[in-house]
């Protein structure tokens, strides 16, 4: 990973952009969605850029960007579509330790701007390290079709409710509440009653979850097959995603482990069964990952004997395809 994806706070930040043509307007169409102050420098800006200035979305300066204009900026974009000018801006930015992006020049840029699916405040950034922009746009188009426009509205209302959800215990109880909201109660309430319906639904949902008994812990034994994530069953992927604790053999693939939440606790297979069962009694959701089909082991036997809820989700065994035999007359 040459470029680490992060989300930078733009409220109160200033971004400087040099350029007045197509490359500049392409970047500005995305940047105007942020809360940053946008200073654009161009001697001959396009009509589209003048329109943005007229609407108050950018501050347009009818001159070249200067060294002093970079001071205090969070980011700088060089979009003059002129290699000499872009390199001058790069030198000025680097002299002041301000990250610079040179449009369509990955090698000389300190950062890149990904393709973005915008369901504000939900945003999905898609990057290919500059290797396949067309692929990034194709993924973006696919996600645009799958994610309903109402998703952003649900997230916005949910954000305003977060402090009240703190009444639920941290961890699994809150995750179950929010999963119920985003997957079921929220979309249905919005369809029936709009914003007001969603807020009423959140009040009702919180009361329901506060009155529920603490969820019992469980163990899911998952066979990881040949170690390919896309070969796991949907049920297995969901179990890994909700797990509080992941216990894996050393030869479980990194591709499988990536499916777990970053907040999950990862433990080796040598962890004593007594420790694991104690965590289950405290309500933890645990997955035990084993290569191949996932043969039950001593942990599962002890858990079943203790009355713990267990499920065995077998993986597809790895079977090597036989090498085709050459027919007479064929050449290898």
From TrEMBL:
This is precorrin-2 dehydrogenase. Residues 151-206 form the Sirohaem synthase dimerisation domain. Pathway: Porphyrin-containing compound metabolism; siroheme biosynthesis; sirohydrochlorin from precorrin-2: step 1/1. InterPro entries: 4pyrrol_Mease, 4pyrrol_Methylase_sf, 4pyrrole_Mease_sub1, Met8-like, NAD(P)-bd_dom_sf, Sirohaem_synt_dimer_dom_sf, Sirohaem_synthase_dimer_dom, Sirohaem_synthase_N. One of its GO terms (biological process) is siroheme biosynthetic process. It holds the Pfam family TP_methylase. Residues 221-319 form the Tetrapyrrole methylase domain. Keywords: NAD, Oxidoreductase, Porphyrin biosynthesis. It catalyses: precorrin-2 + NAD(+) = sirohydrochlorin + NADH + 2 H(+). The keyword NAD applies. It comes from Halocynthiibacter styelae. GO terms for molecular function: ferrochelatase activity; methyltransferase activity; precorrin-2 dehydrogenase activity. Its EC number is 1.3.1.76.
């Amino acid at each position: 990973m040459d470029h680490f994806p992060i989300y930078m706070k733009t409220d109160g930040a200033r971004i400087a952009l040099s350029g007045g043509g197509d490359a500049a307007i392409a970047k500005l169409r995305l940047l105007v969605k942020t809360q940053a102050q946008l200073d654009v420098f161009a001697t001959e800006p396009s009509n589209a850029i003048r329109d943005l200035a007229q609407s108050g979305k950018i501050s347009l300066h009818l001159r070249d960007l200067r060294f002093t204009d970079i001071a205090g900026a969070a980011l700088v974009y060089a979009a003059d579509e002129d290699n000499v000018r872009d390199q001058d801006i790069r030198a000025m930015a680097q002299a002041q330790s301000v990250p610079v992006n040179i449009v369509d020049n990955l090698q000389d840029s300190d950062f890149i701007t990904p393709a973005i699916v915008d369901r504000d405040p939900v945003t999905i950034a898609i990057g290919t390290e500059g290797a396949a922009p067309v692929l990034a746009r194709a993924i973006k188009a696919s996600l645009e079709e799958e994610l309903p426009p109402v998703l952003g509205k649900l997230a916005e209302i949910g954000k305003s409710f977060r402090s009240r959800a703190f009444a639920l215990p941290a961890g699994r109880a809150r995750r179950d509440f929010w999963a119920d909201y985003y997957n079921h109660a929220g979309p249905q309430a919005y369809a029936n009653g709009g914003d007001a319906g969603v807020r009423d639904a959140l009040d009702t949902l919180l009361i329901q979850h506060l009155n529920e008994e603490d969820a019992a812990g469980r163990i899911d034994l998952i066979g990881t097959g040949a170690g390919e994530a896309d070969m796991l069953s949907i049920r297995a992927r969901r179990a890994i995603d909700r797990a509080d604790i992941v216990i894996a053999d050393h030869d479980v693939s990194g591709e499988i482990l990536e499916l777990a939440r970053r907040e999950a606790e990862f433990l080796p297979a040598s962890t004593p069964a007594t420790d694991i069962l104690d965590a289950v009694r405290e309500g933890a959701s645990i997955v035990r990952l084993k290569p191949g089909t996932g043969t039950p082991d001593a942990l599962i036997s002890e858990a079943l004997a203790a009355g713990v809820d267990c499920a065995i989700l077998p993986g597809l065994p790895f079977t090597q395809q036989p090498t085709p035999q050459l027919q007479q007359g064929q050449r290898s």
